[in-house]
Amino acid sequence: MRIWLNKHFGFSKGEFNGLVFLTAIILLLKISPLAYNYYKPVDEDGPALSAAIKKITITDEESSYYTRDRIENAGIKTSSRLFKFDPNKISSEEWQTLGLSTKQAQSIVNYRNKGGKFYRAEDLQKMYTISPAMYKKLLPYVEIENKEPSFAGKNFQYEKKEYVKKALVVVELNQADSAGLDQIKGIGPAFATRILKYRERLGGFYKKEQLLEVYGLDSVKYAEIKDQITINASSVKTLNINTADFSALKSSPYLSYKQINAIIQYRKQHGNYAGLSDLRKVAILTPQIIEKITPYITF
Predict the structure, then answer these.
(1) Where does a domain end: 219, 235, 251?
(2) pLDDT of residue 285
(3) Residue 34: which H helix or E strand, with range?
(4) How far apart are CA 4 and CA 174, in angstroms?
(5) Is 186 exposed, middle or buried (0-12, 13-18, 19+ CB in 10 A)?
(6) Residues 208 and 177 in one domain
(7) How far is 178 from 41, CA to CA, in rounded Å?
(8) Secondary structure element (H or E) that encloses residue 5, with its range
(9) In a domain, 58, yes or no
(10) Domain, as residue range, for 196
(11) Contacts of 262 by beta carbon, 8 Å cutoff, 6+ apart
């Protein structure tokens, strides 16, 4: 080790001896507390301290095992006696007459005041203030009044109401209001509102099948209601295709904005439409679209 230190640090013999001595002192200072704690004699508790600790332990055990018994026996009247009683009715004083302490009796009364009730004699067991011994003592004297109505022996006559099937009505679709549509079997307030809004946008229905275009009204619902409606196509509102502007045409659910613009541009370039044959010359209008809008336009 000395050769290694001389090689790397250039220690002299005296410096090396001093380093070894300093290291020995540091190790001694580190070890001395451990040695002291190891060989230090353990102080024993004096007789007075041991007796006090033992007394505290015994007191805690007695408190744990006999708290309820001390409460039960505290304040008991010397003239206690047993009698038939209803635990839902007797007062605190009567509980004490049965052998309970003041605290026990008041605890049961508080339980009743908060809505608690005894339905059976066995329910007394749920009161922690009543010990098993006291419960066995009181059980034969419990008489709980049963206020629940008894249905035994009573004859009840049930009136069987004949279900009257609602007569089907026939409603004219273009004139009916919300109340009128609500009379149709299968049409509630929600569908009635949707039908009215779509009728307003169209300008009126010209055939029953247009109801299938109402949101949420499928073929099953249509089959259910189709025989309850009629349509007067003469009340359908029409637009003159030669004078209608963009805002008037855009209310139609059958025309897109591009198709409306095409109709107006063709009219500006070629003049008024003479009939359906001119309308068919607008390339963007398909035969299906023309068929749908025909009942709603005039020339």
Answers:
(1) 235
(2) 92
(3) helix 13-39
(4) 114
(5) middle
(6) yes
(7) 102
(8) helix 2-9
(9) no
(10) 171-235
(11) 282, 283, 284, 285
Amino acid (one-letter) located at 124:
L
Please state the rounded mean pLDDT for residues 202-213.
94
For the chain, the residue count is 299
What is the Cα–Cα distance from 121 to 85, expressed in whole angstroms?
A: 10
- The count of domains in the chain is 4
Over residues 51-63, the pLDDT tens digits come to: 777 777 666 655 5
Q: Is residue 49, in this structure, part of any structural domain at all? A: no
On whether residue 87 sits in a domain, the answer given is yes
Q: For 34-90, write each residue's pLDDT tens digit.
A: 887 777 766 566 677 777 777 776 666 555 555 555 555 554 444 678 889 898 888
Residue given tokens 């009715």 in the structure block: 89
Return contacts of 78-83, CB within 8 angstroms, 24+ apart: 82/137, 82/138, 82/141, 83/141
CATH number at residue 202: 1.10.150.310
Tokens of residue 36, six digits? 């002291």
User: Would you state the structure tokens that stand for residue 109, as one six-digit string?
Assistant: 């009364």
List, in order, residues 6 or more apart from 58 with CB less than 8 Å away. Answer: none
**C-alpha–C-alpha distance, residues 3 and 16, integer Å:** 10
Residue 239: which H helix or E strand, with range? strand 239-240
Structure tokens at 127: 């009161």
